[in-house]
Specification:
The chain is of the alpha/beta class and 205 residues long. Helix content is 44%, strand content 10%. It has 6 helices and 5 strands, in the order βαβαβαββααα. The radius of gyration is 17 Å and the shape is globular.
Amino acid sequence: MEPAGYNDSIFINCPFDPEYTQILQAIVFAIYRCGFFPKTAQDNDDGTENRLSKIISIIKKCKYGIHDISRTEVNSEGFPRFNMPFELGIFFGARFLGSSEQKKKNALIFEKTRYSYLQVISDLNGIDPKAHNNNPLLAIKKISEWLTDTSLRKTIPGHLIIVKEYKSFRKKLPSIVQKLGLDPDDIPFRNYTLIVEEAVRGESK
């Protein structure tokens, strides 16, 4: 695949913890299979770069964004997680206050269950977030439909095709990871994206 440009890049704003891994991996596969490129703050592990500056730089380079605000519950110490809503706010700010290119931004907002977002961000009322119900395959369906509607590209396959290919990919993943000498229960994000990109490239030949 060619290097991703602005119109082909999708910023992923979501939790990066073990409990969310299955959904994140499905999101990454769906993005690649639809012909786009995922971008996250984990792409380049540069300890000298401020995380917020990195996020702003990535958002600037992405026309599209997938924002999962389903994980704003309080932690063991009673504090909520505001990272995802905060990054969503930056994305919206870039769209409404940025250059003509930035004003083309489009976002898919995920929530856990229908209308649960109103409990944490009532300002989004009327935006129509999509519920994935913690189901990776449902997340794939929502992404395929969203990109078909927003990009108007005719090359995006229907979600049933992507789901079928993803299930096949999941069966092959353990052996691929083993050959690479990685822990199947803890695949580094960058390694996973490279594996998916290679798998999707192979399917398209």
